[in-house]
Specification:
about 400 residues, alpha+beta, 5-stranded antiparallel beta sheet, 18 strands
Amino acid sequence: MKDPADPRVLSGDLWSDLLATLDRARGIVLADDAPSTPRDRAEGFRYLLRYLAAGHGICVEHADPDYPRFARTVDITTPWGLDAPDCLYLMAPIRGDATYRIHGSRGTANHIEVQANFGHFAEGDIAKWGTISSRNGLELTTAADGSLEIVLGPEPTPSPCPANWLPLRPDARFLFIRQYFNDWERETPADLVIERVGAVYPPPALRTDQLAARVDLLRDWIEKAGGLWDRMSRVMVENMPPNSLTVMAPRAEDAGGALKGQAYGMGNFHCARGEAVVVEFAVPPCRQWSVGLGNWWWESVDFQNRQASLNGAQARLDGDGVFRGVVAHEDPGVPNWIDTAGYEKGTLAARFLLAEAAPTVRMTLVPHDRLREHLPADTPHVPPDERADVLRRRRHALWRRYRR
């Protein structure tokens, strides 16, 4: 196809439009009611840079449905949208009239979910995106050697296993893969590639109209989706009662692009220096569960260097089967410390994958120096050297998960 010579690209106006969008984005950080300490301002502008980097990968570099590649949508260096510390997210562009083949190694993540979706996160409107079809690791067939092949398309096509076909509709726009890790130190990520069946190589050169469409999508990502995450964070942190969390019933369907069968818990923590918040719930039968913190910008709190999240393989349950986590600034010397990283308020998220029911969560604000009065008498003591070893192992495990 001949390049249409998009005038905004030729004149440079496309770049000016992007810069104007970026300039408006600083309003998220400089809003009158946004946190304004030196640390908050530094982290706020770092968030915008991270969010821009994530959007560049999703909207510009990995945006060709004819020659798709997987983009790592969230990383330890690009958190956004209250990402799950246990999850590795991959995204690839697709179109509904094409057929695609995904193949490679399944890896050993505790759970994997493959979704074909319509809409786009950049639209910033949950009602405009959702799932067309999906399969999880319990439904997919993996070969004895760990290899996996999946076919997506408008019509069934020959494949190693009929269960590994995902139907597409004309409005299909992106493929989303979630991999959930329970044992961070031992489970390994999938090694997958995606290709459009019938693609001719090498790919044609980038056209000006393609670049213009991708940069406009990036502008929406920054302004519309960025605004959505800002509003959702404010709802959780400011509009819900302090130290509360509500768990929604497990989703029977993966509506809105959410994970099918997962019970999502959303709430907040408000914890000043010298205080602690005890988070209690009876763990329901489920494939995996977790609890973790998010900051004002709806980034997951630094779970690489801090114990800011816990899952079922990392946490200790008390003798009555109840999880009791302790949100606190200083290490209280208990196994289930959830490190605030210095934030006095933020989002608290819980996830229960393939849960039979949604648990009831109780949160109690207590003086830090009286914390032990609110925990079972047999709660173990974790000395500093043991905590340091746990943190070292977390860091190494995440390096292996996110290595380039």
